[in-house]
Amino acid sequence: MRYLDEYRDPAAAAKLLAAIRGAVTRPWTLMEVCGGQTHSLLRFGIDRMLPPEVRLVHGPGCPVCVTPIEVIDRALEIAARPEVTFVSFGDMLRVPGTRGDLQRVKAAGGDVRMVYSPLDAVQLARALPSRQVVFFAVGFETTAPANAMAVHAAAREGLESFSVLVSHVLVPPAMEAILAAPDNQVQAFLAAGHVCTVTGLEEYGPIAARHRVPIVVTGFEPLDLLQGIWMALRQLEEGRAEVENQYARSVRPEGNREALRILREVFEVGDRSWRGMGSIPASGLHLREAYRRFDADLRFPAGETRGEAAASPCRSGEVLRGVLRPDQCAEFGVRCTPESPLGATMVSTEGTCAAYYRYRRAETAAVVAGAAHGAQGAPGGGQR
Question: What CATH number was assigned to the domain covering residues 1-313?
Answer without folding.
Answer: 3.40.50.11740
